[in-house]
Specification:
Length: about 375
């Protein structure tokens, strides 16, 4: 990892790299307006991981694209290092686009099939005049391949995407994102199309980048097992139909889930212990498997038609706000500590939930323990 210059350590009280405030994204369609993202507040700090999890279609990718500056939100703000992206000068926006890099989900579609690995990795370097010669560009491309464990680099530099495996292609995608020495990586389901063994290897590679280069991560996934493995020292935000319904430190969200939807996601994870698997399923049985349409959202809490804790007159009356849960102070680097949007849980838990994830079987032990396997 010594080939790439490292940035200095950030203090716990430093400003967030990325801050989303009231982010909204509404699309106009033939069937009416579609509120894909409905007011999201999130922060990502240097060297930290924020995992955004939820079912397909919940707004994760739309949120990520707005955070990366690929789309303009219809409401709210995206701020990078305290500066509203929409108010940046051309020079500031250029620096932002270099500092924030996007890793796409599909390793087969994300690479140009007519370009070699060398051409792919050095396109940005040449565009931003970071290299002065082809020899220097080739040396830099080799350094990037070594960072993602594609060695020896000479075996890959002149290869085309069709000559690489899926795991190798995704590592090339990661290497390309590192060419600009980014401060923040936005990973959109970047391991979902890979075999399990390759997935763990890639997550370990990304973990090295986080720890040694102080890179922050906005990590998009539908798999809580992957979120637990990669973001054990970070945070998880659970999205449902465009809104965050639970947010907090990973050990607390995984070990002591509070929102019924979070419990349902955890209940869907393969569990080797049959007794624990039955308990998870019993606690997470949904009233309905049908997801409401974004063009006809239910009144009150959008989850209430599926929620096992649904109470008529409460859940279908008003939308629950996302509020601090339990009154505990925020964790270091967290945007707001533990947050929750549920009428029933907020009413029934006037006291703080347990701070000790070991009290829950899912929260006990290391994230790389036997309970879940990424």
């Amino acid at each position: 990892m010594s080939d790439v210059p490292t940035r200095g350590p950030e203090t716990a009280g430093s400003e967030p790299l990325l801050k989303l405030s009231g982010l909204e994204q509404v699309f106009d369609t033939g069937k009416g307006e579609v509120p894909a993202v409905g007011g999201v507040d999130l922060e990502v700090r240097p060297g930290k991981v924020l995992c955004l999890v939820g079912e397909s279609g919940c707004g994760k990718t739309t949120t990520a694209r707005a955070a990366a500056g690929l789309t303009k939100p219809t409401g709210g703000t995206v701020a990078f290092r305290g500066k509203d992206v929409s108010r940046m000068s051309s020079a500031e926006r250029l620096a932002y686009r270099r500092a924030v890099q996007f890793i796409h989900q599909d390793p087969y579609a994300a690479l140009n099939p007519t370009r070699t690995v060398f051409s792919t990795l050095t396109a940005g370097l040449r565009r931003h005049k970071q290299v002065r010669s082809k020899a220097e560009a080739r040396e830099k491309a080799g350094e990037l391949l070594r960072l993602v464990d594609l060695t020896p680099p000479e075996s890959y530099l002149d290869s085309y995407p069709h000559q690489l495996s899926g795991g190798q292609r995704q590592r090339v995608n990661v290497a390309r994102s590192l060419a600009m020495n980014p401060e923040l990586l936005i990973c959109d389901e970047s391991t979902s199309m890979l075999d399990v063994s390759i997935r763990v290897s890639l997550l370990n590679t990304l973990g090295k980048l986080r720890d040694e280069l102080d890179v922050g991560f906005l990590f998009i996934t539908h798999d809580l097992a992957v979120a637990k493995y990669f973001a054990w020292d970070g945070e998880i935000a659970v999205m449902y139909l465009g809104k965050v319904v639970e947010h907090g430190p990973t050990p607390e969200v995984i070990g002591n889930p509070q929102h019924p939807y979070t419990k349902a996601l955890i209940g869907a994870v393969c569990e080797p212990d049959p007794d624990l698997a039955r308990a998870n399923r019993a606690a997470s049985e949904l009233r309905s498997a049908d997801i409401p349409s974004l063009t006809a959202l239910p009144s009150g809490c959008a989850f209430h038609p599926r929620c096992p804790a649904y109470e008529p007159g409460l859940c279908d009356d008003a939308e629950p706000p996302l509020i601090r849960f339990g009154g505990r102070p925020a964790a270091p680097g967290a945007a707001g500590g533990r947050r929750l949007a549920c009428h029933v849980v907020s009413r029934d838990h006037g006291r703080s939930p347990s701070d000790d994830p070991a009290e829950s079987a899912l929260g006990s032990g290391s994230p790389r323990g036997a309970a879940w396997s990424a």
